Amino acid sequence: MDYAIRHSGEKRAYVAFHRVPERTNGASGSSDEDQGRAMKFLSLLIVATFTMTVASHALSQQLGPVPNGCVKDLSGKISCPPVGGEVHVNLSGQAVCGKGRCVRDLSGKITCSSLPAGQIAQDVNGKIMCAGSCEEASASYCQVLQ
User: Fold this and answer.
1) Which stretch of DSSP H or E encloses residue 37?
2) Burial grade of 127 (CB within 10 A; 0-12, 13-18, 19 or more)
3) Half-sphere CA count of 121, side-chain side, radius 13 A
4) Would the pTM of this model clear 0.85, i.e. be above it?
5) Could you say which DSSP state residue 25 is in?
6) What is the DSSP letter of 138?
């Protein structure tokens, strides 16, 4: 039975003893049984990864593509912004749209320009300025495809 001594600091004060495990099979310390388990685990991992890849590819083909600029929520509903507007997902996971460009503030509120394709700016202090006027993004402005 071998023991190793752990030490710390410059003075090499001895802290504790711990048992060094004995190697039973050759210099490498691994047995054929351990290698067999590792190969089974690796094979299982490869099969699981392949299965998930094929399943996700099949699922994405069933649901169809989402048009550019639109978002799909977890229920499968596709929401698109009006012409000149933007779509965002709010903190509760709902798609909301604006008539113009939009920004999200630090609290998560999405503010948009009230004009179609209207510009919006936010300064370093967080103040938001909009072309026309500013309004909160709303789900009612979105066009729902499904």
Assistant:
1) helix 32-63
2) exposed
3) 5
4) no
5) S
6) B
